[in-house]
Amino acid sequence: MRGINRSKIKIGILITVFLGVLLGVLYSLLAPVSNGCVMTYMYPTYIPITSSESVSPAKYALYLYHEGWKKIDYKDHLRKLSGVPVLFIPGNGGSYKQARSSFLHDMRLFARIATWYLVRSVAAESDRAYQSGPLERTFYQESSLSPEEGGLDKNISGFQLPSQYTSRLDWFSVDLEGEHSAMDGAILEEHTEYVVYAIHKILDQYKASYDARIREGAAVSGSLPNSVILVGHSMGGVVARAAVIHPRLKKSAVETVLTLASPHQSPPVPLQPSLGHYFARVNSEWREGYKVQTTNTRRYVSGPELSHVVVVSISGSYNDYQIRSQLALLDNIVPPTHGFMISSTAMKNVWLSMEHQAILWCNQLVVQVSHTLLSLIDSRTGQPFPDTQKRLAVFARMLRSGVSHNFNRMMQLPSSKQSMHVPGQNTQDATGSLVHRSVSCPPNIRWNEEGLDRDLYIQTNVVTVLAMDGRRRWLDIQKLGSNGKSHFVFVTNLEPCSGIRLHLWPEKGKSAPDLPFNDRVVEVTSMMMRIPSGPAPRQLEPGSQTEQAPPSAVFWLGPEDMRDFKFLTISVAPRPSVSGRPPPAVSMGVGQFFNPEEGNKDLSPWFMLQSVYSQKELLLEEAHPLAVKLSFAVSLGLLPVTLSMKAVSCGIKNTGLPEEEAGDPESTNLCKLRCFPPVALAWDDTAGLSIYPNLNTETIFVDSTPALWSSTQHSEKTVVLLLVDPHCSYKSSFSVSVSAAASRLLLHYCPKIVGFSIAVIFFALMRQACLWDAGLRIPSIFIGISLICYIFANGFVAILALISHLVFFVAAVTHIFIKTRWQMWEQNFGFIFLRWFVNLSSSFFSLKGVRVLRANPVLVTVAAAMFFACLVHPAFGLLILLCAHFFFCHNALCSFLMASCRNHEQNGNLDSLSEVHNGSERPRFKFDGSFDRTFPSENDSSNTRDSSKSFSDSQLDAFHHRHGLLLLHFVAMMMFAPSMVAWFQRLAIGKSLPWLLDSTLCMCIIVNGICNSKPEFNSFFLPIRGFPILKVRLYFLYLIAGYCSYFAGLAMAPYVAVYAMAAVGAISFSLRMLQRRNRDTKQVTYGSRKRH
User: Which residues share a beta bridge with 464?
Assistant: First the structure.
């Protein structure tokens, strides 16, 4: 009894914790998110592309987008097609248009409107970008291809982005009727078929337009496009990749694929087996497509089929709850030489995390994507570059930022592959050898070095720039970089070349031309890396000093960069800007020679766990390193940390202010005038860089999913680099956000929880089968469940079991109450009509056909479930099986309660108890839901092989056994629920048969529910010639299925657990048939011997 109470206490605590965490998750998910995006506005016109071919004409459609409010002639516009075709593929529930008149439209209106915005916003911005020209060139460090991506290729070393756009982008879009493609693999197959047709139709339309212009004698320039650029959002990106490997797609019809928030590794809802099979097949064909084609004897046949295809994936980072960066990765699908993934937080000129739908209309991202696609066009041909490395280099330079490209080297992380080099270009000298020369500022931005007022010689390891004073500051590298301070970091809001310049000098001189050629000064201005800056500084009071400006660039030199140099100079331009633009209102620049080891702060797991209930503080004294590296032992993708930075002093000792005034409002305002706002740079191996400018109090996230089989070695940690003013002291506080941590845990590991929940049920069924074989009582499904996996899986199963127990108990008590009061109500005149209805029902049930069906309820259940699973939808077949489970459990529980009540009434008279056991009759509950008025004996009705068990115990055991199967098959049905939603949506437009894989697996699960409907079916006796009778126990199968489900959860592929359920059903059916065959064989043999 004490053990049972302990189990109940454990289950109560488990459920309480589960519900508390679930409430925290809901609070975090429902809280509004501010992403900082700007809306994109447009004036759209959609031109239908008609076709004479019968390729789903009434279902899907193809449109051409036109930007502008003026009315145009559709046919004339199509004849003028001469740009680069781009096809947009919407995602789950998305379409090109805004509204459609149908009942189901209200269910997906928001998703369709949001997706409709992408083709409008990107097309509108690409049209504006084409008219206004490329983005204004800046001289910050640009990203480049890594050696693994082919960055050492000589053809790429001197490649430059186009200086003007020569061709516009023609945006096409497919209307996929807003179908929920993320829920059904069959829908993805149909979308892929139509996208292949749309690609061919677009290319044919350009050919027809070109021929029409030639016939009319119009001027024809450029060449016909041979390929279409595919841009897909969400599941549209998956469809785009599937279309590339479609056997009917023309070769080289698609060479560039750009996906936005698309899952590539696995389905976002990995529940349906056919959906998982679809992803596995597509990814497998992509892996094979990048391999050299050979024969079985390793003889060369042809090059890789996909060698011409470049794929770039953009994720929305931590604010995208639907598609995480882990799903958007291209690792092990596309080689680094042909594609990469980048998060929106690490994108140049974007730096924002956004929701799944916001990525469609966020103007910062849309503008950058538009200019990127236009930069892919070769100015000589008017079509995209045919060379894959050039196209990949365009994506890298236009999307990646310099700081994300060099963060690993700056932090000296183990994943760093090479040291940072001075940006330059490869040229040939007089001997023809390749020489690397640094890139200087362009000649049109040239300073008159004689115009510098006078040089300043810095004597401390900290240098400060407070104004555009036109001076050059000299820093002695050997002197200031001594005592381990071998690194130099500099932050500023001045632009490179036009506002500030940095040089490395081998020796002190007045000007660079005075030095010999071999000792020439190296300009390193182009090593400045741009970072997002916060809001512009403001005045605290009218006429007062303006606050310190936030930095917009960071410059980093390591000891390998300063080797063989003696001096570093920082030249600031005079206030009149040389580029014609007004200088910033407030100029700032702070640099420091520092020792990285002094700024390393390791935060242990215990430190982070303690910050859950109490804030932990970290004090940075004055003269601290400008770059402070915080190493969190637990990934901030799992435990987001709320970081608060407060300046408590800013050189107060030197200003004469008393120390006790540090931290009061007056000193805080003073620090805002003297200290630049802190900046946090968080790095994750999967999602990349996330930057938090003007750090005051922020919850720092990274979109990381640690503790996976595919996770990298250092994914369980997060590195945060703080750029803080060394003139000031800061009090930083850390606290783990419980609600944010709970939401991240549930979002990242929901598929794992589903797989573990199935494993929990399998292990419970295994325990039941073991106890039955031992002749012991079978406990309830939720009593004794141990913490074998994550607490959420156990909590979910426990709550599901409790709710179902409560429902069964209430239904049984209500049924018994009505039946026991029936005789009292029969004489009531008010129930004459009810008696007439019961008699009429009895006459109906007396029909021969109905009697046959009632006599074979199992056969009826199997036939109906199989019919719906094969011809309608698998979820309906499982629903019928659940109904059979429900009625059986209800019958067993009612019989148990009636027998218990009967025994309780008879316990008062011990003499009559023996008589009751010998001749009285107990209640029996039929399948049709009615009680007989007689009570059969226990020996006639017992379902157990052990006659010592009472009738009530046998009924209770049968209830618990079937209840466990009900929970297992309920979870299986819920795994097909998303697909059923898509099935309901497609009723109005026609629905094809379910996938054979899904139907076959569901048929095996249905067989499992029928073959193992009673506890005694947990064991099978199989006689084999030459061996003693073999006893096969199902608990061993449940054990194996439980471990399969457990590992499926670890792999974030819970749909694999459906295969385990189906395997148990198939094996159970086979054993049942073998046992029946052996039994029939024995009966035939015995009958033949008797006749003899």
Answer: 590
> Starting at the edge strand that comes first in sequence, how are the strands of the sheet with 688-692 ordered?
600-603, 627-632, 718-723, 679-684, 688-692
How far apart (Å, rounded) are the C-alpha atoms in residues 682 and 553?
16
C-alpha 232/C-alpha 92 separation (Å) is: 11
Q: Which has the closest alpha carbon to 607: 644, 646, 633, 643? A: 633
Phi and psi, residue 699, nearest 5°: -90, 115
Q: Is the pLDDT of residue 793 over 80?
A: no
Gap between the Cα atoms of 567 and 555, Å rounded: 16
Average pLDDT over residues 554-571: 90
Straight-line distance from the first to the last Cα atom of the chain, in angstroms, rounded to the nearest whole number: 59
Give Cα 337 distance to the centre of its chain: 24
Q: Cβ of 477: how many Cβ atoms within 10 Å?
A: 20
The tokens of 900 are what?
């218990």
* Beta-bridge partners for 630: 601, 720
List, in sequence order, every residue forming a beta bridge with 137; answer none if it has no partner: none
Number of other CB atoms surrounding residue 303 within 10 Å: 12
**Highest mean pLDDT range out of 669-683, 830-844, 956-970?**
956-970
- Residue 257, SS3 per DSSP: strand
Give the distance, in angstroms, between the CA of residue 670 and the centroid of all CA atoms in the same chain.
44
Q: Compare 1018 and 814 and report the one with higher pLDDT.
A: 814
| Helix, strand, coil percent values for the chain (each to nearest 5) | 45, 15, 40
Q: What percent of the chain has pLDDT over 90?
A: 17
CA distance 618 to 612: 16
847 token code pair: 């029909």
**C-alpha to C-alpha distance for 1069 and 1076, rounded to whole angstroms:** 11
Tens of pLDDT, residues 313-340 = 999 888 888 888 888 999 899 999 999 9
Contact 657, 701 (CB under 8 A): no
Which of the four pLDDT bands, split at 50, 70 and 90, describes residue 940?
Answer: very low
In the structure, what pLDDT confidence band is assigned to residue 428 with cuts at 50, 70 and 90?
A: very low
Distance CA 1033, CA 898 (A): 32
Residues 600-621: what's their mean pLDDT?
85
Neighbouring CB atoms inside 10 A of 347's CB total 24
Both tokens of residue 300?
Answer: 């060369």
Q: Which two tokens stand for residue 808?
A: 């069964």
pLDDT tens figures, 697-733: 778 877 777 666 666 656 678 889 999 999 888 888 8
Partners of 87 in beta bridges: 172, 230
Instruction: Tell me the two tokens of residue 487.
Output: 């690194």
Helix 874-906 crosses helix 791-820 at what angle (to 10 degrees)?
60
Beta strands in 724-796 (DSSP E): 729-736
CA separation for the pair 307, 388 (Å, rounded): 8
The per-residue pLDDT for 798 is 75
Residue 559: other Cβ atoms inside 10 A: 12
Decide: residue 851, CB within 10 A, 0-12 exposed, 13-18 middle, 19+ buried: exposed
Half-sphere exposure of 505 (CA within 13 A, CB side): 23
For residues 692 and 707, give the distance between their C-alpha atoms in angstroms, rounded to a whole number.
Answer: 26
Q: What is the spatial order of strands in the sheet that 500-505 belongs to?
A: 455-457, 472-476, 567-572, 500-505, 522-523
More confident residue, 5 or 873: 873
- Number of helical H runs and strand E runs in the chain: 29, 33
Residue type at 714 in one-letter notation: H
pLDDT score, position 280 = 92
Q: Compute the distance between CA of residue 476 and CA of residue 458 in angstroms, rounded to an integer.
A: 8
Q: Measure CA 251 to chain center.
A: 32
How far is the CA of 997 from the CAs of 275, 673, 754, 1037, in angstroms? Answer: 10, 68, 21, 22
Q: CB under 8 Å to 328, separation ≥6 — which residues?
A: 259, 261, 262, 263, 264, 265, 313, 314, 315, 341
Judge whether 130 and 166 are in contact, CB under 8 Å: no
